[in-house]
Amino acid sequence: MLRLVSAARNRPLRVRAAGVVAHGAPRLGVKKSPFLCSYEAPRLSFSSDARGGSRSWGTLAVNDPVAWQEAVKPSLVTFLELKKHLMVPIAFVVPRGDEAWPRAAWGYPLGKHAAWLRKRWRDGGNFGLDPTQLDEMPFAWDWSQYRWDRFILPALRRFYELNGHSDVASEFRVPRASSEWPEHLWGQLLGRKVFNIRSRGDFAKQVEADKDELERIKFCHDSTLNDRNWREKVIPALRVFRQEFGHCNVSNAFRVPSHLPWPEAAWEMRLGNIVKEIRGGSVGGNQHKRELEELGFVWDFFEHEWTKRIRPALETFQRLKGHCRVPRSFVVPSDENWPIESWGLTIGTVVSSIRSQGTYSTQVSRDMARLEELGFVWDFYEHEWSERIRPALETFQRLKGHCRVPRSFVVPSDENWPKESWGLRIGTVVNGIRSQGYYSTQVSRDKARLEELGFVWDFFEHEWSERIMPALETFQRLKGHCRVPKIFVVPSDENWPKESWGLRIGTVVSSIRSQGNYSTQVSRDKTRLEELGFVWDFFEHEWSERIRPALETFQRLKGHCRVPRSFVVPSDENWPKESWGLRIGTVVGGIRSQGIYSTQVSRDKARLEELGFVWDFFEHEWSERIMPALETFHRLKGHCRVPRSFVVPSDENWPKESWGLRIGNVVGGIRSKGNYSTQVSRDKTLLEELGFLRETETMSFQALGRSVRSSRLAARHVVARAARSQVALAAARPSRAFSALQSAALQQRSFQRSQTLTVARTFSSVAAEAVPVPSMGDSISEGTVVEWLKAPGDFVEADEVVVVIETDKVSVDVRAPFSGVLEAQLAQIDENVLVGAPLFSVVKQAAGSAPAAAAAATATPAKEAAAPAGEDLETINVPSMGDSISEGTIVTILKNVGDYVRADEAVLIVETDKVSVDVNAPVSGKLTSVLAKLEDVVEVGSPLFVIDKAATAPAESATPAPTPAAAPAAATTEKAPVSPPTPSTPAKVAAATPSAPATGRYNRNETRVQMSALKMRASHRLKDTQNSAAMLSTFQECDLGNLIALRDELGETFEKAHGVKLGIMSSFLKASAQALQRIPAANSFIDMDAKEIVYNDFVDINVAVASERGVVMPVIRNVEKLSVVDIEKTLTTLGQQARDGTLALEDLAGGTFTVSNSGVNGALLSTSMLAAPQSAILGVHGVKMRPTVHAGKVVPRPMMFLSLTYDHRIIDGREGVTVLKSIAEAISDPRRLLLDM
Q: Which residues fall in a compositionally biased region of kind Low complexity (predicted)?
């Protein structure tokens, strides 16, 4: 119970003078109160028409004991529970409808009642109630005393218990939800209240009354606090500063670090602000002058900076560089060539402020003679123009023959150019002269000279007249039209104007249509453009001239308008010439599913319906083709068990609409994938009447599948001895261990596949063609089989996916090159396969001849046996293995001299440092000689082996075809339930091998697992990069506050306008592109073969995108030309493709720079590994709130560490730091991205 409650109880009640209304009177007048209000006493507490237990309060119930017990007292108790105090504001009314409050008190003016109680207490009047009832709660009779007793003094005591002192910082707030603090103190601004006690004298009466208690907790008033701070914080911090830095010249922004050897009492103290006040005389420096001078305290900051740091740095710069043109971004490096006092000085910023703002004016005036001796440049712009820019322009015109300087052009460092201009970004300067008026004084003065050089003042007019219009006229003359593809670039040959060579005219034309570029020139030359047939509305032209005529021709030739999705208009006379090569199937699919060409389709809808255009393709296929075919099948066959390979024949027994329909594939899709689910559900009764079976039908090739698996098991036993012998040989020669193991594995695979093909061909004499593993990119030599989509015996269509292979970069769908029956699977799931190795075999047959497959299998081929013998010999050379690979080593020879090899069968394997290549036979024949030995190094193009094309294939054993008499037996066995073939469990490449358990006190095991070839190859590449590149890393801190604020403010509007969310990564990519254009070395690579550095004039950035298989690094092309909107859309598209597994190899190949975002995994700081042949990689890390000096104040800001790892062979330290600093500055101030700064 608080002391003020006790005081209220013992306080005598004063008797009112004459004229004062007695207790119980109907009116209570309050003329002056702390709340500046007046009100009347009630006549009655509540009305009688209350509903649901609530009452309609008209006035205060100050003298009603029933109202006190039912409403007022429970409301005060509830207020205390919810607010943790009883300082009830006068305007507070118990809220209606809130079940947390007593229902009887809803709407009661509790604040006015509390004010009446306080006034009666101050006046010494009677409350009309037993005072002991108020003792049950800590009612706030005196607000000041109540705050002191309930909040401030308990908070000071608790602060002292936790910290050992009561020096509360002004910004301190009691933490919420803290178990160390009482709940009613949570959120209290204790620091602000303590500051007001010291500075304004708040709570003076309470401070005086509790002086002993405050002394116990060491509470300091203003004077004593300053003295103690000086002794315990300022002087010890200055001593450590001198000890750490060798001087006592404290900068204004310096803050005491929170670690040793700095005094713990001074941690996070703004020492720079205190030193500034000492120098200005506002803090007692005079009283402690001797103590400060002993520490070497610097009283005149500017004089000390000039004498000890700036002037020595300028003298050193002139001595080392030979001039005094200090770049604005230059920082004094920390090495022995520079004065130690100047290390880390931003001398470039200092020099710029001397020129533009007159800083250090006293020192500059005094030392002007010395500065002129050093060659200090007072007028930077005049010096740059006369000594660097104009000579560079004159040299450019002399060497190039014109003065059209590309924006990205940088003056090279060679003898043809003035040495003063080396490294000058003259392209950026020229663009600034045109668009922003840079160097206006110098340009006006030298205008005549610039015009003599052919300086282009209006870039757009020059581009239009000299390059774009001639290119359009030439395109129309050569192509016969003016429909320029978006990707078209003017080739560098004599048919085209030389001025236009390399012009991306397709991009220009697209921007004219969509963005209105070159609007002035287009309006002026509109007549000439129309003469050329320039297409203003591309979609209208495509529809009228190409798409609609193609649809009409399709209907005329085919008799219907069901255009297959893969259909392309052929280039023959039956079709309109304008439509040749048009992917009309893709267009029709887009019309149905995405609503493209909606304007034209709506206008010509009647004509499309006359052609029989199918709006709902699935409904039309079901009603007009599939259901009639199923009904006919049931009528002719007596059942509805449609074989998977069955195709509707083109004869009169079948509906004409269904001719050529692969009804077996359709039925399989209905059963396994739920295709045509809407139609199947609707027509379920009819399908059941036809006897449609949902069970998986048995296959005629089950015996083939079982024989293939048996052959593989036998092959493993046959090859095991050879593999063990090679491994034993490798053990004797550890340097070749990996190659020997790989050779043994490859020989085993080759033998298995040859045996599989032999067994498979015993079931069919129809020639089968092996389909090899396709190329998956320059740096990918093998992959892993992850899924078979077709089983042996299935009919596969041309371009249908058969198997899925995954690499460490991409998932590849391997498709059938032609239609036929899948004969054999030549690799198991989880098996690694090399590029070019046989993967599966297909018996080739036409789409409409599937029912005749069995008959074709019984025919005995005699063409090969009858082939005449010849003496044609063909020499096979070492194939090309990539642009940068000139030779390789023979690691495995798979065929012996005299063996018969088939076309596209691997003969030997050549391995390089990047890829392993199967060298296949281009033709079938007998291997007559091998021109190189195992482990020989062979060059690309050199002879490798010789094949006799005239040799005949050895005879193969064939199982005799069944006679017609055996047909009934076959029919009998057909009824027996037979399980479909299932792929056997794949054998692991290397099983996990547990080592022998340890003996002794600890019984622990270890497990060894053989590294996969993919992992081995990746490790080799990483180690090669580490061995070849001179990798160096630099770091920078970056403030993301402005960027995050921009995203929070405009993110919703951005998403509504562009359909994608505004993220942070797009800003990093844009900032990186700008930085790489300013520092071309960071966007280059070394060609070691040519001994050249290759500079890219484009910026292609690899960026990390999450997928189900992990993180992939697709490439965003030409980032320097993309806006933030374009980058966000591209990131969204790539992310969706990564999740769907539809990224193509082209999306992952290339890249000139990489952005690695390890912050998503929580990394605070890391260094990244270069991705060869790139020269730099940016590391983006986690965002953390850290105290930072912002606008002169220490505030929490979202900060991030950036890292740049670069190849020091190309990029020197200055360039690397400049790139990273440029990116950090652009992110910290997003306006730089807009202004290209």
A: 953-977, 985-999
